[in-house]
Structures are given as C-alpha cells and as structure tokens.
Specification:
Strand order of the largest sheet: 1-2
Number of strands: 2
Largest sheet: 2 strands, antiparallel
Helix content: 55-70%
Shape: elongated
Structural class: mainly alpha
Mean pLDDT: 90
Strand content: under 5%
Low-confidence stretches: 211-217
Radius of gyration: 21 Å
Order of helices and strands: EHHHHHHHEHHH
Number of helices: 10
Oligomer: single chain
Length: 217
C-alpha cells in the first residue's frame, strides 16, 4: 500500500491540458506568421495567408474555451497560503534541490500558482483584444485608436504568454516526474511527499510527523 502511486491528474484533465497545449502551438505559429513579414512563411502551415487570418482567431477562441475548463477545475488549488510566502523566501534551497527546511506546500507550489494567474490574465487580454481586432466580425464597432491599443495589448500578452509557457515547460522537465504525471496521471508517493507534502497528506490522509509522535506518546 505504501508503494501504491497517487493519481495526480485524471484522463479528462490530461486530455484538456494537451488540447490547450496543441491549440497554443497552433495559435502561436499562426500569430507569428501574421506578426512580422519575416515570419510569414509560417502561414504555409495553415494553407497560406488568407487561411491563417481566418483560422487564427478561431484557434484562439477555442484555446481560451479549453483553458477556461482548466481554470474551473484548478482555480481553488491555486490560491496562495501562508506557507507559499515562506517557500518563496527559501526558493534558493528549492533551486538547489535541497528542500529540507522548506515549508510544505499544497498541490501547486507558489511558482506554479504565479504561472496559473499569469496565464489566466494573458488569456483574458488576448481574448478581449482579439475580439476588438477581429476584422471580419467586430473591428467595425471600434475606432482606430481602440484597435491600435488592442493590437499592442494583444502582442504584449502573447509575448508574456509564450515566455510563461517556456518557463512552464522548463520547470516540468527540471522537476523529474512532472511530465510523467501529465502523460499517465500518476506520481510516486515519494515524489508527492517531497514536492507537495500538504497535498500528499490530504490525498493519503496521513498525519504530519508531529501528530504521529503525539499519538504514539
């Protein structure tokens, strides 16, 4: 029983995550093709310039919809707690993989929580700015000043989103076991206890060490 792995993500959550990932890649590539003439060659991946312009906003909306499902599922686990502030103060130990003395945390560490809220903010900016500059449907309802501002915000949010995803991928690879959790859903008990001890206790109903000592006494 002690060696039994723990389910971190079920099949629906994993499928949802990878759909968002695929749509993000498609949105990023089509967006880059439209962003600068030097990158217009990327439009061939989507059937040429006209098709890229048609598909990009639909891909973006679809990405937001699937991402919103993830938000509904995980937003409660991404609120900050007192231990998160202490964890951030000792992040140098975490970076050195020396987590002794680092406060236990829940299902997500503070870095993951910051990423979650950054992604949500960027997605919202991309959605609303994208609606303003969606020429085929909505841009006629806005003046040129609003369209220019929306275009700038859209580009900035996309830039921050791409950087955030790069950090997300790097962190997932750096912390061994994280990518596997999103592929097959399971993590070892040792992994869960080391990286997310509060979540581990909640899932296994295991008491903290002090409680176990007091019970024995």
């Amino acid at each position: 029983m002690k060696d039994k792995p723990i389910l971190r993500y079920n099949a629906n959550e994993r499928t949802n995550h990878w759909l968002v990932a695929i749509l993000f890649i498609m949105a990023a590539l089509s967006g880059l093709a439209l962003f600068h003439p030097a990158l217009f060659w990327l439009s061939h991946l989507f059937g040429g310039g006209p098709w890229t312009r048609i598909l990009h906003p639909f891909i973006g909306v679809l990405m937001f919809v699937f991402f919103f499902f993830l938000v509904l599922r995980f937003w409660r686990a991404n609120f900050f707690i007192a231990n998160d502030r202490l964890w951030l103060k000792r992040i140098d130990r975490v970076m050195r993989n020396e987590e002794e003395g680092v406060p236990p945390i829940g299902k997500y560490n503070p870095g993951q929580k910051l990423l979650f809220w950054t992604l949500l903010l960027c997605m919202l900016i991309l959605l609303f700015s994208g609606i303003v500059i969606w020429r085929a449907w909505f841009s006629q309802y806005f003046d040129i000043g609003a369209i220019r501002l929306a275009t700038l915000l859209h580009a900035l949010a996309a830039f921050v989103l791409v950087l955030s995803i790069i950090v997300h991928i790097y962190a997932g690879i750096w912390i061994k076991g994280s990518v596997g959790a999103m592929l097959h859903g399971w993590v070892s008990r040792a992994w869960a206890k080391k990286h997310h001890e509060l979540w581990y206790r909640d899932v296994t109903r295991e008491d903290p060490p002090d409680s176990q000592i007091s019970k024995k006494g």
